[in-house]
Automatic annotation (TrEMBL):
Name this protein carries in UniProt: CoA transferase
A Pfam short name: CoA_transf_3
Stored PANTHER family: SUCCINATE--HYDROXYMETHYLGLUTARATE COA-TRANSFERASE
UniProt keyword annotations, A-Z: Membrane, Transferase, Transmembrane, Transmembrane helix
Lineage, top ranks: Archaea, Thermoproteota, Thermoprotei, Desulfurococcales, Desulfurococcaceae
GO terms for MF: CoA-transferase activity
Amino acid sequence: MKPLEGIRVIDFTHTLAGPFATMVLADLGAEIIKIEPPSGDETRQWAPFVNGVSAYYLSINRGKKSVVLDLTKSEDRDVVYRLVKESHVVFENYRPGVREKLGVDPNKLFEINKNLVYISIKGFRPSSIYEDLPAYDIIIQGLSGIMVSTGYENEPPIRIPFALFDVYTGMVAVIYALTGLLSRKPFYAEVYLFDTAIFSMCYLPVMYLLTGDKPRRMGHQHPSIVPYQAFQDKDGKWFIVAAANDRFFTKLCEAIGKPELASDPRFNTNPSRVANRDALINILQNIFREKSRDEWIRILRKHGVPVAPVYDFDEVFRDEYVVRELIVELKHPLLGTIKQIPQPGTINGERLVSTIHPPLLGEHNNEISNL
């Protein structure tokens, strides 16, 4: 039995943060009823497509039942109210004013179910200066400072290539939903994408607030640890060396046949290595170009140095660990089987993932209408 079996969630969300959150709850055993307008969740129309089905949509909607309802119609709202009466959690991510217009605002739904947990995902806090600003991923990345904290100096801003803050927001929404279920009383929570972005960067904003120093754009390097970055081998392949303390640096020097570097006053402590970063990195890079990536990984691991290849996606999904642990297959009525990524941990030794395929639009209309 999964931890959340018996919990019913009404999901009005679309796009990423909300659907990701409710997929996590589905993996944990909750019943998710996905309420979609007649046009469906907009991600159903997002490329790339697999035999006409959006891969994006497939990635974040397993474990759900799809019901098509037009909430501008009173008879369809009545279906929602009947469902809410027998449910535990509601998720929505409507623009300001929309939930009231559709009759699914918290005041209305708490009248129907006084023990409801209501989770609202928004871009920004209501009544703030940004309340009406569209909260697209690139807007949040731009406002957060992350785009000019990655890459290198004098380069254009760099967007993280997936909606990182939407995913973080979804996880925070899951935490709030579980908190609400534990509270056993009317529970209303709002989660804001922009606030989550600043919060999730953790030490970067706090370091700035305490020192006034903006994060340097250092690419794959670390501002406070050297060497802690990617290097190239003789064939141009990249690998990571993470000598995060003096002990690992000494092991690294022994592994590359240069033990004297560990006692060199320019490099014998991490602060000295940071101060003499360019000199040390130049020495190491010249040495690493003498052998292949695989050779260096074998040598460095033998000496206890933290090291890993820099994979492209082909290599990631050929990796033995990933193949064994992080790819599962679900049956799908149109596609036969689809590959999915399960939950990133285990509960009582079991890696949880819903076995219910991402639903077709309105696939469960008849089932839900009979509840």
